[in-house]
């Protein structure tokens, strides 16, 4: 993939967010993108996942050119094959842990969504919390539900945006362990955006994002 | 992505966790309010009609000066309708060397079909309902005849060739119908006695009447059939063309109920709009996550539409059921005020309720709801991203179209719908404009003052759209409450004032010119205040602008009827009280020299008479002709003698005629009427108190029904207020947590929140007072045609209720948020 992202400013000027960024992620590979706040990490993640479109360049996901697909086609491409873990968990507040975990399986028409989700939650140690709502869970538990949701459909690619950013250190470490264990078990490729050096150290490759440009971390 | 099971599972999850609750509550309320109001007004209207029908003694009558063909009665009976017959004619009763002119009314044994006859078995005995009309051989007499002739119960009187026994005093006769003017006191006999009297011959001046009653639909169907089968000269009469006083009261009652229904629809619509706004805000995150996980726009659209369908179906069914139960309870409460049980409702309001639900939901929520399908999935990373806003004209257009449809449907009256709809639009514009102005005025204050001030009052400027939503919803909610007061206190009072406590209840007719002075003196000496006397000349309209006027040139109904009878013309120098000139000008000094006519507006419309037209009347074989110099409105329900056509004295003063006057006879002084008849035998006293009582009853019951209907408006108004307060809950929760983390105390925060709501409430109350006054004035003058008196209390009640109510309510609703530990709030985000 090689992309640039520019946005028009209110004063009519153009602001370059990403500048000719090139990246390739192989199946099963784990890549960490490090960088300070505002360096363009999350923008890159959004573009790679097909949540947005780049103003220039090409992104290929599972062999498909995202630029040639409309939003719905990109969504269909994501369903069941791409998953996410966010800093703010992004669980649906109105659904229980089980229902949140079932969601990607249901959207991928998996007939055994319920049992799959139950297994995934058991895997992250939340068998006793299946019917709890996010508001009834601690931050660590919520992120474990998010991990269960992310891996339940055994996706080809997982995008993680500061997955430990909202957690205390101890919980963060446990979530990191869980994330990498699950990744290894499923063989899912991982693109991790973080400014946590220790978390990044667990990945196969580490890249540094600075002022919209991507380079190998020294 | 085409999985109906998944769609319903997602909707079920939304439902269970309360995301849709406020919207569903608002919808159920809207549908139940519309249904209940629809059912209830439907029943009350029909009950009022039945009440009014008592004046006719039937739902429908057919009158003719010739015997009516049997076919008319057979057809009615074939359709399962009840029938009765009556004959009325003038006659003379000799008694102790005196001759008394009377109006004989002979009735069949099924008479009356509506209402009841009330009699006194002896003079002065308590009044009681009659179980049946007079039996053959019996004669019931009106009270003035008893007094006038000095009759006794049990006495025998001659009527034609028959001898009939006076067996009761007829104290209340239903079925006075459209014509109050009769030649003498009424006597009621059995129709079976007519052949023996020998009074009815083909040459007699007899009014034949067929009375018909039954279910509304069957009556309407019969009316349609009869319209094509009436013999020449016969006329159909129902409450639609009955006495103007009753028709006016009934129309006003209907409009009051429609007004209440429209207001309910409007406020319930506002509640739905607010609830759906909140629902959509909360759904933005869900949509973004679902799309991120692979849901397509098509799937999202299908999900949203299915959800809309489910909400409509559920709330439609629940609302209709709740509405039906509510109206049953209301009908029980109000039912005892009606003489008969409220008639069962027909099913038309059911469609109204369901239709209103669909229209409300579609109009207020569909365009913004479908927007949710376009929430960018990137929102999961950037919370500032939302769905692209729909074009203003789409949202505004859909909401306006929905409102227009609903108002028109509920009002069933274009003027009322236009007035209330226009008023609502004006109120909405005013509230939105004020909110904008407020934000603009407060913006410079944002950086000044203490934290509480900045968070509170000046903070109103920080979120202009939220301030606009809150001020508008508070304003609308309060407007609903104030309208209740305006309608209940001011308009209903103005309606009831149309018949003053001492409105004339007796008419004196056939006063000869040489008796005018003596009759007036009699009334003066008895201290009976009256209107008039007014001269009265009977004449038939023959030409308009020289063109002969023939009934068959006019459409069926009122215009034809008007032309087949003689008019009561009057002449006067000054206009009568309650008459208002609409076009042209009332005459001045030319009254004594120039022949001119003044015509009542409704008559002019019916017969196509315009200002400046020349009218020619045939008055006892002489042509009287003049130009129409003005058109005027008449207060038909003031129980004063009123005239369709008034001429200048120059035109009619010299024509032979009689005089008419009316006066108020207090209860207990009935003997004066007897004395009057004795002193002036040619004068006829007509008791209109029973019609007046009917009108008053319709007003009282109508007013009561309106009050109950407004309970729904009140509930919808409270829901709007609640939704308004809820609108800022999410942002307040977050802000309060941050401010508390930064060291602001709960007390300061509570003070700030209280101040903000107090200020918003007072401002909304003030604007609501303005809108309520304007709406009250518009509705009373344009729709109800009542004199409106400004109520100064509204201006105090609005801001006070708004400030205290919303200040307190808002603080109570927000306070729990301030108690929550800030860390928990921030971490939950």
TrEMBL record, chain A:
Pfam families: ABC_tran
Keyword Transferase: no
InterPro entries referenced in this protein's UniProt entry, alphabetically: AAA+_ATPase, ABC_transporter-like_ATP-bd, ABC_transporter-like_CS, ABC_transpr_LolD-like, MacB-like_ATP-bd, P-loop_NTPase
Cellular compartments per GO CC: plasma membrane
Domain ABC transporter intervals: 2-218
GO terms, molecular function: ATP binding; ATP hydrolysis activity; transmembrane transporter activity
CDD domains per UniProt: ABC_MJ0796_LolCDE_FtsE
Keywords for the protein's UniProt record, in alphabetical order: ATP-binding, Nucleotide-binding, Transport
Record's protein name: ABC transporter
Organism: Candidatus Sedimenticola endophacoides
């Amino acid at each position: 993939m090689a992309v640039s992202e520019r946005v028009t400013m209110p004063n009519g000027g153009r602001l370059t967010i990403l500048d000719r960024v090139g990246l390739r992620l192989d199946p099963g590979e784990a890549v960490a993108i490090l960088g300070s706040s505002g360096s363009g990490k999350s923008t890159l993640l959004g573009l790679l996942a097909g949540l947005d479109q780049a103003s220039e360049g090409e992104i290929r996901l599972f062999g498909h050119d995202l630029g040639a697909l409309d939003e719905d086609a990109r969504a269909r491409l994501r369903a069941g094959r791409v998953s996410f873990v966010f800093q703010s968990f992004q669980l649906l507040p109105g659904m229980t842990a089980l229902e949140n975990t079932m969601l990607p399986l249901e959207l991928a028409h998996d007939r055994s969504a319920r049992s799959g989700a139950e297994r995934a939650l058991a895997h992250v140690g939340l068998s006793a919390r299946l019917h709890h709502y996010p508001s009834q869970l601690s931050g660590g538990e919520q992120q474990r539900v998010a991990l269960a949701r992310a891996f339940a459909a055994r996706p080809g690619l997982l995008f993680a945006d500061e997955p430990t950013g909202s957690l205390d250190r101890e919980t963060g470490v446990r979530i990191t362990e869980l994330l990498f264990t699950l990744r290894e078990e499923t063989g899912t490729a991982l693109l991790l955006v973080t400014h946590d050096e220790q978390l990044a150290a667990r990945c196969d490759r580490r890249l540094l994002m600075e002022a919209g440009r991507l380079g190998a971390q020294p | 992505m085409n999985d109906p099971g998944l769609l319903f599972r997602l909707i079920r999850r939304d439902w269970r966790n309360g995301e849709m609750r406020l919207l569903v509550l608002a919808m159920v309320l809207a549908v139940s309010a519309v249904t209940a109001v629809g059912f209830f007004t439907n029943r009350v209207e029909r009950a009022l009609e039945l009440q009014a029908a008592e004046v006719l003694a039937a739902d429908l009558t057919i009158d003719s000066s010739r015997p009516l063909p049997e076919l008319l009665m057979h057809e009615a009976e074939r359709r399962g309708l009840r029938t009765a017959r009556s004959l009325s004619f003038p006659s003379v009763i000799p008694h102790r060397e005196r001759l008394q002119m009377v109006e004989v009314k002979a009735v069949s044994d099924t008479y009356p079909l509506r209402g009841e006859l009330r009699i006194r078995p002896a003079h002065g005995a308590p009044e009681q309902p009659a179980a049946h009309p007079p039996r053959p051989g019996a004669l019931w007499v009106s009270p003035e005849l008893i007094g006038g002739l000095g009759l006794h119960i049990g006495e025998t009187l001659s009527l034609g060739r028959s001898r009939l026994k006076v067996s009761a005093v007829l104290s209340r006769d239903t079925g006075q119908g459209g014509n109050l003017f009769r030649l003498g006191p009424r006597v009621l006999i059995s129709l079976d006695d007519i052949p023996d009297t020998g009074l009815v011959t083909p040459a007699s001046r007899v009014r034949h009447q067929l009375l018909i009653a039954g279910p509304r639909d069957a009556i309407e169907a019969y009316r349609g059939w009869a319209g094509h089968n009436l013999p020449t000269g016969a006329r159909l009469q129902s409450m639609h063309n009955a006495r103007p006083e009753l028709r006016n009261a009934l129309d006003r009652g209907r409009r009051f109920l429609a007004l209440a229904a429209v207001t309910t629809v409007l406020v319930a619509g506002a509640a739905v709009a607010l609830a759906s706004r909140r629902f959509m805000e909360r759904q933005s995150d869900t949509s973004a996550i679902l799309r991120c996980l692979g849901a397509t726009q098509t799937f999202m659209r299908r999900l949203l539409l299915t959800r809309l369908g489910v909400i409509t179906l559920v709330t439609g069914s629940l609302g209709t059921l709740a509405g039906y139960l509510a109206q049953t309870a209301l009908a029980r409460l109000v039912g005892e005020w009606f003489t008969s049980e409220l008639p069962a409702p027909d099913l038309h309001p059911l469609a109204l309720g369901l239709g209103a639900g669909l229209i409300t939901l579609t109009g207020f929520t569909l365009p913004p709801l479908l927007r949710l399908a376009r929430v960018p999935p990137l929102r999961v990373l950037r919370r500032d991203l939302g769905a692209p806003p729909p074009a203003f004209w789409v949202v505004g257009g859909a909401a306006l179209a929905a409102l227009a449809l609903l108002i028109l449907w509920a009002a069933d009256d274009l003027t009322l719908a236009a007035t209330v709809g226009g008023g609502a639009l004006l109120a909405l514009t005013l509230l939105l404009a004020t909110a904008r102005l407020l934000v603009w005025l407060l913006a410079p204050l944002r950086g000044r003052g203490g934290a509480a001030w900045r968070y509170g009052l000046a903070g109103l400027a920080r979120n202009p759209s939220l301030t606009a939503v809150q001020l508008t919803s508070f304003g609308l909610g309060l407007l609903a409450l104030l309208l209740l007061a305006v309608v209940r206190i001011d308009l209903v009072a103005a309606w009831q004032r149309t018949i003053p406590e001492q409105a004339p209840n007796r008419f004196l007719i056939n006063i000869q010119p040489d008796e005018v002075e003596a009759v007036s003196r009699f009334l003066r000496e008895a201290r009976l205040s009256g209107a008039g006397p007014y001269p009265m000349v009977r004449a038939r309209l023959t030409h308009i602008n020289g063109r002969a006027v023939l009934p068959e040139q006019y459409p069926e109904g009122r215009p034809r009827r008007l032309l087949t009878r003689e008019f009561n013309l009057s002449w006067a120098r000054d206009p009568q009280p309650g008459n208002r000139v609409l076009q042209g000008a009332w005459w001045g000094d030319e009254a004594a020299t120039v022949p001119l006519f003044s015509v009542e507006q409704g008559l002019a419309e019916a017969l196509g008479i315009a200002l400046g037209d020349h009218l020619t009347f045939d008055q006892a074989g002489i042509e009287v002709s003049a130009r129409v110099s003005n058109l005027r409105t008449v207060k038909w329900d003031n129980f004063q003698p009123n005239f369709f056509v008034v001429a200048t004295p120059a035109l009619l003063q010299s024509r032979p005629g009689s005089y008419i006057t009316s006066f108020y006879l207090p209860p207990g002084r009935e003997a004066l009427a007897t004395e009057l008849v004795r002193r002036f035998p040619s004068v006829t006293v007509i008791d209109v108190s029973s019609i007046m009582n009917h009108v008053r009853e319709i007003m009282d019951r109508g007013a009561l029904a309106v009050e109950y209907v407004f309970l729904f408006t009140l509930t919808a108004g409270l829901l709007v207020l609640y939704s308004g307060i809820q609108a800022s809950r999410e942002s307040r929760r977050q802000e309060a947590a941050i401010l508390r983390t930064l060291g602001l105390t709960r007390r300061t925060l509570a003070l700030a929140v209280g101040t903000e709501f107090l200020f918003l409430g007072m401002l909304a109350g003030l604007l609501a007072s303005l809108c309520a006054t304007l709406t009250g004035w518009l509705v009373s003058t344009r729709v109800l045609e009542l004199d409106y008196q400004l109520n100064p209390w509204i201006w105090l009640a609005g801001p006070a209720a708004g400030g205290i109510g919303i200040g307190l309510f808002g603080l109570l609703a927000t306070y729990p948020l301030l108690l929550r530990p800030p860390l928990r709030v921030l971490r939950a985000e």
